[in-house]
Amino acid sequence: MLLTQWVKPNYLAKTTVETLVHAGDVEPGKAIFVGISAVNKVGLGPRQIATVSSDGNALGSISPRSPPGLPVDVNVFAVTTSAGDSLRVTWHEGEIYGGDISEYRIEWSTDAGATYPNNLVVAAVPGKTFYDVKITTSPYSENVIRVRSYNDQGHNGPSWYQYVDQFETNAISEIVDFRAGAQRATPTCEEGLDECYENDPFIIWARGLPGSPPLWVPTYPKVDVTRSFTRESGMIYFKVPDFNGERIDKWRVEWDIDASFSSDMLQHSIVEHDGDNDDGYTYYNITSLVMGQTYFIRVTAHHSGGYGAPSSSYPFKPMQQPDPPSDPALSISSEASTLLGYSTTLTVTWDYPSIANPYQVGDGGDPVTGYVVEWSKIPFDMLSPTIQDIHIPCADAARFQRFAVRLTTTNDQIKRDASTNYYSGQFFNVGTFISADIPVSATAFEVKRILENMPNIAEVTVNKVEDVNGVTWSVTFEEAFDVPLLEVSSSSLMCSGAPAQPTISYGRNSIFPTSSSYRWQEVPVNPSSTVNKLVLNDLIPGQTYYVRVSAENQLGYGVRRLTAPSMLKVPISQPMVPTQYEVEWGTPRVYVVTSDAVVVKIGPSSFDGGSVITHFNLQWDTSSSFTSGASKTPLGSVVVPAFKVLCSACVSNIDFVYDGSDDTVTVTYVGTPDIVRQLQTGARILFQPLMTPFHIPSLSGKLNLQFLPSLFAILD
Prior knowledge:
The structure is a single chain. 4% of the residues lie in helices and 37% in strands. The chain has 716 residues and is mostly beta strands. Strands 23, 26, 35, 37, 38 and 39 form a six-stranded antiparallel beta sheet that branches. Strands 5, 6, 8, 9 and 11 form a five-stranded antiparallel beta sheet that branches. β5 (103-109) and β6 form a beta hairpin. The radius of gyration is 50 Å and the shape is rod-shaped.
């Protein structure tokens, strides 16, 4: 508007101010000169150019203007790559009201806009209308950001800004913005962020995207880890990332058969964050997996800024211990090339595990690497296996309370005879292995699976009992000898607010009679052959043996299965050829006595076929074919006794020492001095058990076998 002063002639003068031109008639920011002429009844006098104030220029013109208006499109973004200490502010130039912008000032508050102690001055650039500026704030703080414009008239906008009402505002520029002369920024998510959102129209939480979180999966990096699994599921643990791990609210768990996570089999699940338990883990059980299929697993943390960087991916293959071998069979070694082999061996054959009722997993999803064959003189159902009781005094399932156990098994590798067989107390798999975490709410079946996933534990049976004293899981093992006591490896158990420890004790020690002569042998898989066979050597002719087999994968040995038939008697055969009387490696000797007589000295056969040799059939002939007699029979023959009884029911003790190179037998007996003299001559003797059959096992080291005197006789 233009203002002028005038004096009415012929009257008393009074200065007045009136509006001559309304706003809008003068273009904002356009330089103008103001000229004034006096008018009377004669006419218009000369024009006088008005002198401008300090807001004018040297030419005498002046530009109409006021403090600038609010910046527009003011937005603030969290900087995704920051450590939660940066914000990005953008805006466009607003209405300048005639005066060029000289600078902007970014101001921010950490007390919800009550005060703005922080600011950053941004110099305006001529011709530039859009600005994008980063500011640094306190990590993970909540901020209100506003931007103020400046020109040579100052800031805070035109004077009318102080009088706006709600009808002149909108959802972005409110009364508080006009009165302050600064526009608050709208919190905004960057384009392309995955599920980013802002909770408040003006308050923004400074944050970067979550970093890569730590992840733990089953069976990695080794089989015995704390994450439990089954043949179709796997429990994973994960924690908030060290980088930008604040306010995590959920997780995306992904699994795929392709390490690139790009196959059609890719699946995912959204898991609510549950890291407020004692150890800070969130847990998730991935189910409906395919046994034997390798999956790759990763997790990604989320907060209001979106999903962050995925974790490293790790492989996991759901599996379990294998079923027993298919079609295990026990047979007489009919292909043996000698009588000794035929009468001291049995043959066990089997096929690779397969899925056939009642067996449901075959190799358990992992290639079979070996087999174990066990045999005994007595039925395996006479075994009273080891029972161990795991007890906890309380079972508060809240906050995922759990514990783990460990088992140490050994095999001293000591051989008790010249064979390669193993014996009672020598475990199939040796070492210390740790179970997966056992939740205090675990069912009997869950504990069974967790224990059986330990490589040194085969099939177990578990029963669960809950009472006022707590929870007890009774674990029955299937080994034919005592299993060492399980030990507590870790525990987060709390009872009445105080740490508590599970206790483990024997419910029963294993009982399997030593007369079983239990043995076992490991048979590695032969990749070049489809035939699985083991010949059981050094058996006793006429003795019945019971045999069972099991298969092994990386989780250890699984279910045992009896052969068909489950037992078989080793055949008794005819004896081998007689030997020299003095030593067994020679042949019978013939000596001249007179012109019509010879003496024949005969020793027992090196192998009697499994039955005591009672007689020798002594033949003579003029031809080595022994066909000179009638009907091509020998000229003569006679049956002679094979032994005489030195004493009966006289042996009370036998000491047998085997050192790998020599055998020593010490006999304690009740007899006469005459028998002593005969024994001291070094002549070969036979101990005949009066209970048939009987076997004297040999040991590396000294073994004392105590017998009742009535059990043995000494034969010469």
